[in-house]
Amino acid sequence: MNALPNQALPAQPLSVWVLDEGRRGHLNQSLGLLDALARHVEVRSEVVPARYVVPGWLRTVVRTAVIRSRDIPDGLIRRCYRDLRLPSGRPDIVISSGGRSVPLALWLRQRFASRQVYLGEVRPYPTRLFDVLLTPVAQPGAAHVVPTELLVTRVTPHDFDLARNATRATFGVGESECTAAILIGGASRSHVFRESDWLELANGINATRARYGWRWLLTTSPRTGPGVEALLRASIDPGALSNAVWWGEQPHSVVRQYLAAADVVYVTSDSLTMVSEAVASGKPTVAVRPRKIRHSAYIEDALGAAADNKRILRVTCDGLPASAGRLETLRPLTQAPGDRYAGVLLDLLPSG
């Protein structure tokens, strides 16, 4: 870690720059931490577009140069990031997530003597490069690493305290009616969904309606695909659904509304972002996976830790009915975890 012990953070307000390398999930992690910081101290923030344009075959070369260099050349950064425009002034803290942001973040620290805070999957970069690292993956013996509950998000349990009843009315859900949301992703490098998995998922939705009287709020996503959507629509009893958004037909985001209205949230575990938002909402959360998984150490470590902490249940697609009887074993969040991360972060960064 390139700590700067002789240069304390200034008195408030803190100048915080958030790097946006173009992926919404990464930006939301950074903004979630910024939101939490702003609940602790006065901040003055800027979002800096950071469009990384290095072709794939050159990225290893750039990454190696950044790791080895004590003085990252200005010209390298200007070539790596298209139309880079920096805000006026200097940042006290630079927050980023996603590997494409790392060269710029480290160069900004070099140029402005700012503190560099990174969120999420750090590999293939070594942890020593970062002043503070927030990650759901354990890093034993690294004092500058802040362990997180899944990914940092902008969602907090308090977001939905007052919105529940109004949102349920929007979807025609009764006050006493048990309502489950299901957030459906799709195939990824780690998650290999087959037709049999989707049929088991549909059968599980139907079974919980028949056995327990549950009604469902269902949304697919850009990753789901029209073929899977058609299969689900043909297999799920329409009477089991209070509301459904089929992304391929009429795309619009209802995740926050569903999180507000639901009593329990099911989410396919191909998306750590969706699982993290469900957990951060304070609702009992069940992570649903296909039978075939290609091992991903990062995803497995993150979900495994969440299960050990009783934030989530993990089931295969045929496990929806059985999971209904295990929800009481969970310990949903009652406070925004980002507040704790922000407090630890400020303790790690010397203040003046």
Tell me about this structure.
There is one protein chain. With 352 residues, this protein is an alpha/beta fold. It is built from 12 helices and 16 strands. The protein has a 6-stranded parallel beta sheet, with helices on both faces. The chain has a 6-stranded parallel beta sheet with strand order 12-11-9-13-14-16, with helices on both faces. Strand 11, helix 7 (226-235) and strand 12 form a beta-alpha-beta unit. Residues 1-7 have low confidence and may be disordered.
List keywords for this structure.
2 domains, alpha/beta, 12 helices, Rossmann fold, disordered N terminus, six-stranded parallel beta sheet, single chain, 352 residues
| CATH class identity of the largest domain | Alpha Beta
Classify the fold: give the CATH topology of the largest domain.
Rossmann fold
Strand order of the largest sheet: 2-1-5-6-7-8
The radius of gyration is: 22 Å
User: CATH superfamily of the largest domain, please?
Assistant: Glycogen Phosphorylase B
Mean pLDDT: 91
Helix share of residues? 25-40%
**If helices are DSSP runs of H or I spanning 4 or more residues, what is the number of helices?**
12
Number of strands: 16
Count of separate structural domains: 2
Structure classification: alpha/beta
Which percent range describes the beta-strand content? 15-25%
